């Protein structure tokens, strides 16, 4: 990969040369930790909806819209902000986003009203629009093309951990010390992660090659569009239900103080999904994605059938969240492999489509929960996951059996 021209009045900047996963592991770990705090920032309200709603005097359904506001901002801004910042140095941009995440969490922690709280979340949404778009492209630039899947798996382990561990850990902290304390701790974690990125993440060039340029012919654009739509439907189904997982657990008879530990148990099971992604993404990506989507669908169907039996809900929740943990890495690798756009634009599309699903899912879940109850909520989520599975089954050229 060519290097950028030297900055005015300065020496030529040294950039990382793509190589093996082993050679890039320090940078991939830094991206993974950054992804963990980013995802935890996004989904933290999920485990604290009852406390947040009581703290600022709104209903749980309205508090759930904090997830929607955040996600829909990402969906709307990911592509334009990625285009706007595509010539900026990647590493300083990653650092800027981490500090912005910290500021967002501080604003939420001190918010005296729901309006100020929503403003803090909006800042986080704008930040997220940039971070995830560049982090996906960053990870792919650290390694040669044949290692893309494994590199993305490592970089997104933090995201999977954020989905399945960040929420329960912060929920337990919020339950013990108050929901505002959870956001303060997360702000500190974002600042510490910025220091880790300074130490471990190598700079990469932003100058596109002829193949990487977005002006080059792109026969894979149609396939990239299919991956993006499938990704949106997947996250729509997941967040229609997952936004209200604490409400589901309490409705099944779980004590509010036990929600955090239970979600932590779900998170431990969810690490199986990370292993599953690593085992399939560079070998059998199609079978891996179908298996993951099918597992999530089955888990949600069992939650629907078992509710309000707490034992059945807990058992099904393990299957549901374990399998979902594998989906982001497999889908991101599928998108990169279409070669339908440069890594940054591909990252923006995946980021945008995922957050469109998250925001719409939180809003849909709010409507269903208020009008029809928890049982219908889980059934709607399962139906949407079944649609995503069908899309993968039909689109054989977009989701091939081998990379």
From TrEMBL:
Top-level taxon: Bacteria
InterPro entries: MFS, MFS_dom, MFS_Efflux_Transporters, MFS_trans_sf
Chief place where the protein resides: membrane
Keywords of the record: Cell membrane, Membrane, Transmembrane, Transmembrane helix
Gene3D superfamilies, A to Z: MFS general substrate transporter like domains
PROSITE patterns named among the record's database cross-references: MFS
Keyword tRNA-binding recorded: no
Membrane topology summary: Multi-pass membrane protein
Keyword flag Membrane: yes
Domain Major facilitator superfamily (MFS) profile, residue spans: 27-400
CDD domains: MFS_NepI_like (cd17324)
TM annotation in the entry: 23-41, 61-81, 93-116, 151-169, 181-204, 224-252, 258-277, 289-307, 313-336, 348-370, 376-395
UniProt subcellular location: Cell membrane
Name of the protein in question: MFS transporter
Organism: Paraoerskovia sediminicola
């Amino acid at each position: 990969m060519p290097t950028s021209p030297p900055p005015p009045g300065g020496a030529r900047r040294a950039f990382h040369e793509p190589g093996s996963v082993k050679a890039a592991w320090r940078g991939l770990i830094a991206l993974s930790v950054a992804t963990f705090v980013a995802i935890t920032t996004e989904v933290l309200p999920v485990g604290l909806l009852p406390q947040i709603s009581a703290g600022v005097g709104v209903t749980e359904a309205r508090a759930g819209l904090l997830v929607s506001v955040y996600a829909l901002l990402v969906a709307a801004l990911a592509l334009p902000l990625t285009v706007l910042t595509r010539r900026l140095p990647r590493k300083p941009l990653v650092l800027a986003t981490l500090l912005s995440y910290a500021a967002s969490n501080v604003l939420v922690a001190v918010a005296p009203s729901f309006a100020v709280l929503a403003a803090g979340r909006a800042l986080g949404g704008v930040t997220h629009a940039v971070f995830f778009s560049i982090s996906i492209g960053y990870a792919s630039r650290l390694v040669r093309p044949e290692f893309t899947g494994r590199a993305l798996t490592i970089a997104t382990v933090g995201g999977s951990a954020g989905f399945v561990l960040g929420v329960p850990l912060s929920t337990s902290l919020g339950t013990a010390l108050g929901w505002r304390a959870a956001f303060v701790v997360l702000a500190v974690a974002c600042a510490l992660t910025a220091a880790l990125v300074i130490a471990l993440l190598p700079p990469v060039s932003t100058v596109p090659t002829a193949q990487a340029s977005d002006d080059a012919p792109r026969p894979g654009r149609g396939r990239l569009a299919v991956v993006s739509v499938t990704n949106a439907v997947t996250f729509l189904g997941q967040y229609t239900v997952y936004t209200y997982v604490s409400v589901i657990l309490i409705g099944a008879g779980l004590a509010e103080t036990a929600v955090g530990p239970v979600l932590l148990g779900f998170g431990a099971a969810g690490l199986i999904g990370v292993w599953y992604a690593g085992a399939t993404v560079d070998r059998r990506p199609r079978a891996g994605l179908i298996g993951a989507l099918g597992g999530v669908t089955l888990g949600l169907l069992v939650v629907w059938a078992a509710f309000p039996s707490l034992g059945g809900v807990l058992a099904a929740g393990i299957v549901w969240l374990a399998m979902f943990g594998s989906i982001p890495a497999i889908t991101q690798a599928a998108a990169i492999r279409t070669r339908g756009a440069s890594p940054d634009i591909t990252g923006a599309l995946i980021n945008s489509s995922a957050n469109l699903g998250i925001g719409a899912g939180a809003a849909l879940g709010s409507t269903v929960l208020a009008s029809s109850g928890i049982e219908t909520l889980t059934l709607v989520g399962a139906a949407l996951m079944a649609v995503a599975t069908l899309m993968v089954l039909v689109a054989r050229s977009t989701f091939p059996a081998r990379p």
